[in-house]
Amino acid sequence: MEIMPMQAIIFGSIPESILILWAGLMLMGIKPQIKKVVVVGILQGVSVYFIRKYMDFGPHMIATTLSLIIYTYIFIRVKWSVAIFSVMVPCIIVTIVEGSLMIFTDANFVYIWSSNWLRLLYLLPHEIILGFIIYIGYKEDISLCNEFTWLEKIAG
């Protein structure tokens, strides 16, 4: 259990939640209202604070993912399958990028997590990748639904 510093919530969790949701919806071919995505990001940032405060490492990941799926369903007003897919795919991308950083760098993660600002720098690689997905989705009108016809059944 951890009490996250306020700058980690404001500059870390909230932007990360916004980018995860926005990229996930773009991958599903949905161009959401940015205002709704920001509201969900702020709610998720507050939720992450309390989840991290009261849950151990591991279960907190499941709880934060579920909360983002629920917020997506309620506020973005998409089907459950779309909400799940829109959150899970970017979360998998984030996990791959963070795992790669752990494997291929010689970073001292205890030191990184103990520094409020270094912890925010650690988020940049996957946030850049999610931002690139959003940019390409808008610029080229590319989505996974365009590429995989079976996803159109999920997005309905």
From TrEMBL:
Keyword annotations from UniProtKB, A to Z: Membrane, Transmembrane, Transmembrane helix
Transmembrane regions: 6-27, 57-76, 83-105, 117-138
Name under which the protein is recorded: Uncharacterized protein
Species this protein is from: Crassaminicella indica
Lineage: Bacteria, Bacillati, Bacillota, Clostridia, Eubacteriales
